[in-house]
Automatic annotation (TrEMBL):
EC number(s) on file: 2.3.1.234
Organism: Pseudoxanthomonas dokdonensis
Cofactor(s) of this protein: Fe(2+)
Protein name: tRNA N6-adenosine threonylcarbamoyltransferase
Cofactor: how and how many bound: Binds 1 Fe(2+) ion per subunit.
Gene that this polypeptide is encoded by: tsaD
Length: 346
């Protein structure tokens, strides 16, 4: 089944074609992402109206480009998947409107995909992907969650952030220290030049039981350290390293607790922060010491992309799930409310 995936939940326009009839190594026929970073940089954050308008401009050309790279005609598509939520309502409606129009014109089924389920399932596109049950860490600019995955479509929330998500904390901390937008990747790169241990910040909520997260207090600690420092380039790097170490340690401690609580030894990590090199190394060591393993998507599929939507949609379409021909999005959507798959397999 050749499925077109469309992602327009925020400020990336993502398109991909996933072919369930191919081996895992070649099933992703083509994918492309257009980022709006330059558009929003002067505002220091995403402007929803501008994001929606740019999706309108970029989506159709990106679909044509992706189909060309896949060596397919539009008539070859057998299903369409699109991000239906959560996300910015205007941006979501652009993708949903195009997806539904294509599906109607081609007389093929279409399905709205939960953005975070797309992230969660992205590592399963890789070779030697794990089978449920496993624990998933979903860590991005908008979400930090630990989820017990009993089966595809059967999700149980174990813990989540009570305030800022990890990626959001990276971005806000970078902005406080004068780094350009988007700050998270800039801060992580700067941390590579920092001296380990020169600044040590707390590991929030690790001194008490539970699997919830909180990063707002850590952000305040960094603000105070930066304000009272000499603000030299090396000090900036040292503070960045201290902040990154605190976030990585906190995530690793909570992940280990979640594995112990669930009785699993397999951890799946997805979302933009999942591309962080220090986090990947820390979680790899932790899971190996437990006799388990950790699975990540390739770095290009950690951030928002159409491939994860095409894959998640293909699984549900293959299971016989599809929806009425209406343009419907859900900007706020609890992943636990998703239906389980009656059948599985890619």
């Amino acid at each position: 089944m050749k499925v077109l995936g469309i992602e327009t939940s925020c400020d990336e326009t993502g398109v991909a074609v996933y072919d369930t009839g191919q081996p895992a190594a070649t099933a992703l026929r083509a994918h492309a992402v257009y980022t709006q970073i330059a558009l929003h940089a002067e505002y220091g954050g995403v402007v929803p109206e501008l994001a929606s308008r740019d999706h309108v401009r970029k989506l159709l050309p990106l679909i044509r480009q992706t189909l060309d790279e896949a060596g397919l005609r539009i008539a070859d598509l057998q299903g369409v998947a699109y991000t239906a939520g959560p996300g910015l309502v205007g941006a979501l409606l652009v993708g949903a409107g195009v997806a539904r129009s294509l599906a109607w014109a081609l007389e093929v089924p279409a399905i709205g995909v939960h953005h975070m389920e797309g992230h969660l399932l992205a590592p399963l596109m890789e070779e030697n992907a794990p089978e449920p049950p496993f624990v998933a860490l979903l860590v991005s600019g908008g979400h930090t969650q630990l989820v017990a995955v009993e089966a595809i479509g059967q999700y149980r929330l174990l813990g989540e952030t009570l305030d800022d998500a990890a990626g959001e904390a990276f971005d806000k901390t970078a902005k406080m220290m004068g780094l350009p937008y988007p700050g998270g990747p800039q801060l992580a790169a700067l941390a590579e030049q920092g001296t380990p241990g020169r600044y040590r910040f707390s590991r929030p909520m690790t001194d008490r039981p539970g699997l919830d997260f909180s990063f707002s207090g850590l952000k305040t600690q960094v603000l105070l350290a930066w304000r009272d420092s000499d603000q030299s380039p090396q000090t900036r790097a040292d503070i960045a390293r201290g902040f990154e170490d605190a976030v990585v340690d906190t995530l690793a401690i909570k992940c280990e607790r979640a594995l112990e609580a669930s009785g699993c030894n397999v951890l799946v990590v997805a979302g933009g922060v999942g591309a962080n090199k220090r986090l990947r190394a820390k979680l790899d060591v932790m899971t190996r010491q437990r006799g388990g393993r950790v699975c990540f998507p390739r770095p290009a599929l950690c951030t928002d992309n159409g491939a994860m939507i095409a894959f998640a949609g293909a699984l549900r379409l293959q299971a016989g799930q599809h929806e009425p021909a209406q343009v419907k999005v859900t900007p706020r959507w609890d992943m636990a409310a998703l239906p389980a798959l009656a059948a599985q397999g890619a």
